[in-house]
Amino acid sequence: MMTSVDTGVLRVLADPLRLRIVTLLARETLCLTHLVEETGAKQTNLSNHMKVLREAGVVETEPCGRYVYYRLRPDVIAQLAGQFADLAASARTAAENKRACP
């Protein structure tokens, strides 16, 4: 049973804008222009966030003419969810274990 969470992906998703981007990409594949429209963020700011998400393996890209589309990698999110499920299961068991104070 795994009880530690992938802190790298967790740190990446801790940023509110990146979490918003991931939420949007969970519904559909989008290009940067769509993300600017949806979030109201500046294109350069979004480009930097997309680079972080791409390097963390959370999103993948698909070139389409002069645009680049971004797609969420559901396996990464599922793995993170599984790690949290394992952590919750461990916590349920740990509720019965109490270490004695010295």
Sheet bearing the most strands, described? 3 strands, antiparallel
Shape annotation:
elongated
Number of strands: 3
| Average pLDDT for all residues | 90
CA-to-CA gap between the ends?
29 Å
How much strand content do the residues show? 5-15%
Oligomeric state of the chains?
single chain
Show unreliable segments: none
Strand and helix order: HHEHHEEH
Strand order of the largest sheet: 1-3-2
| Fraction of residues in H or I helices | 55-70%
Secondary-structure-based class equals: alpha+beta
Number of helical regions: 5
Radius of gyration equals 18 Å
Keywords:
3 strands, 3-stranded antiparallel β-sheet, 5 helices, 14% strand, alpha+beta, 102 residues, single chain
Describe what is shown at a glance:
The protein is an alpha+beta fold and 102 residues long.
Folded structure, characterized:
The protein is of the alpha+beta class and 102 residues long. The protein is built from 5 helices and 3 strands, in the order ααβααββα. It has helices at 7-14, 16-25, 32-39, 43-55, 74-94, and strands at 30-31, 59-64, 67-72. Strands 1-3-2 form a 3-stranded antiparallel β-sheet. It is elongated.
